[in-house]
Amino acid sequence: MRTKIITLTTDFVSDLYVGQMKGVILSINPEVKLIDLTHKIKSFNILETAFFIWQVCPSFPDETIHLIVVDPGVGSDRTALIIRTKRHLYIGPNNGIFHFIEENQEVREVVKINTKAFKNSSATFQGKDIFAPLASLLSIGRKMEKFGERVDKKIIEKLNLPEGCILYIDDFGNIITNIKKEFSPGEKLTVMYKGKKVKVTFARTFSDVQEGSYLVLKGSSGYLEIDKNKASAAKALGAQVGDKIGIFKES
Question: InterPro entries under this entry (predicted)?
Answer without folding.
Answer: SAM_HAT_C, SAM_HAT_N, SAM_OH_AdoTrfase, SAM_OH_AdoTrfase_C_sf, SAM_OH_AdoTrfase_N_sf
